[in-house]
C-alpha cells in the first residue's frame, strides 16, 4: 500500500491539488482536510490532478463528490485531470464521469473552466458539515444518491 501524498499550489487563479498514491478508507480523511485547507488558501476553483493516483475506493469518491458540492455551492468549480484507467473505471461505474469535468491536463482544466460565480476566487467564509467536504461519514452515505443518479 502506497501512502497518499497531497500537494497544492495556486495556478492562474485555480487551486491545483495533486494526488499521488492510494486514496481509500485510510487516507480519505487526510484528503478531506487538505482540500479544505487548499481551498482556504487558494480559493474555490479546484483542479484535482489524478495522474499519479494509483487507486481510489468509494471513500475517495465520497471526498470528491463532497468537494464538488462545496465548491459549486461557493460559486467555484472542480475539474479532474488525467485519471489512470483504474480510477477512471471507478468514475465510470458510478456515473461521475458524466457529471464531473474530466480533462487531460491542468492547463486544459484551467482553459475550459466556467467563469466563477460571485466570490468563487475567495476562500469560503465558513464551512458546515451539511454537504460540505467536512461532513465526515454522514456525507459518505449522502453521496451515494448523487453517484447513482449520474448512472441513469
UniProtKB/TrEMBL annotation:
InterPro entries: Anti-sigma_ant, STAS_dom, STAS_dom_sf. Residues 135-152 have a biased composition (Low complexity). It comes from the Bacteria. Gene3D superfamilies: STAS domain. Residues 111-152 are annotated as: Disordered. Residues 124-133 have a biased composition (Acidic residues). Belongs to the anti-sigma-factor antagonist family. This is Anti-sigma factor antagonist. It comes from Actinomadura miaoliensis.
Amino acid at each position: 500500500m502506497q501512502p497518499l501524498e497531497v500537494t497544492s499550489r495556486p495556478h492562474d487563479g485555480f487551486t491545483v491539488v495533486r494526488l499521488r498514491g492510494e486514496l481509500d478508507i485510510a487516507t480519505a480523511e487526510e484528503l478531506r482536510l487538505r482540500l479544505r485547507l487548499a481551498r482556504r488558501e487558494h480559493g474555490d476553483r479546484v483542479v484535482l490532478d489524478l495522474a499519479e493516483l494509483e487507486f481510489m475506493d468509494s471513500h475517495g469518491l465520497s471526498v470528491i463528490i463532497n468537494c464538488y458540492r462545496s465548491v459549486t455551492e461557493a460559486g467555484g468549480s472542480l475539474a479532474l485531470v488525467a485519471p489512470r484507467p483504474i480510477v477512471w473505471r471507478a468514475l465510470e461505474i458510478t456515473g461521475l464521469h458524466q457529471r464531473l469535468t474530466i480533462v487531460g491536463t491542468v492547463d486544459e482544466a484551467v482553459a475550459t473552466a466556467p467563469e466563477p460565480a460571485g466570490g468563487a476566487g475567495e476562500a469560503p467564509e465558513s464551512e458546515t458539515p451539511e454537504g460540505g467536504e467536512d461532513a465526515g461519514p454522514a456525507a459518505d452515505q449522502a453521496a451515494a444518491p448523487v453517484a447513482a443518479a449520474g448512472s441513469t
